[in-house]
Amino acid sequence: MDNQNRKISRQLTKSGIPTKTDLKPFLPSSKRKRKGAYALIECFEEIPCDPCFSACPFKSVKEFANLNDIPVIDFKKCTGCGLCVPECPGLAIFLINEDRDDGKATITIPYEFLPLPEKGEQVWALNRVGEIEGEAKVVEVKTYSKKNHTTVVTLLIPREKVLTIRHFRRKDQNER
Ligand code: SF4
Ligand code: SF4
């Protein structure tokens, strides 16, 4: 079954929150995960949109047969450059790097709130419903261009949470 015709869970249909089974077809192999960062596109609605395709300089996002197709990455071509992350208007692309020896991973998240966090800051890592999953350290804050105001923030997180953590909240003054 290809990704366009895959079965989706009741949970994803009802709440928009994917299960691990929903995510599986969009993840690279374990071998590819050991080769460095990869993009994970979590765009499950068939919407007429394709900036992810044009944003990738390596043609890693497969060509759409139809503008409503679900984007799919060719992990043989994805270099993990991260350029697609700030270009998605739906904030649906994440960059994950599990290629570490310390049991941790990094996740790069598109972030459109101000003020921005600072490198080294401890923040609350949140799951898809906004619940706190634990603390995370901000390891990079990057804005690619003046034209694109979406900043990308990279967090250091436990590796077992790479499919869970999708956002963060800065700590209040009294939480620091
Ligand atoms: S991370 Fe880079 S190479 Fe991979 S899909 Fe995104 S833009 Fe393309
Ligand atoms: S740019 Fe984002 S919202 Fe648009 S198709 Fe690609 S992943 Fe989906």
From TrEMBL:
Transmembrane segments: none annotated. GO terms for molecular function: iron-sulfur cluster binding; metal ion binding. Pfam families: Fer4 (PF00037). Residues 69-98 form the 4Fe-4S ferredoxin-type domain. InterPro entries: 4Fe4S_Fe-S-bd, 4Fe4S_Fe_S_CS. Keywords: Iron, Iron-sulfur, Metal-binding. This is Electron transport complex subunit RsxB. The lineage of its organism: Bacteria, Bacillati, Candidatus Lithacetigenota, Candidatus Psychracetigena.
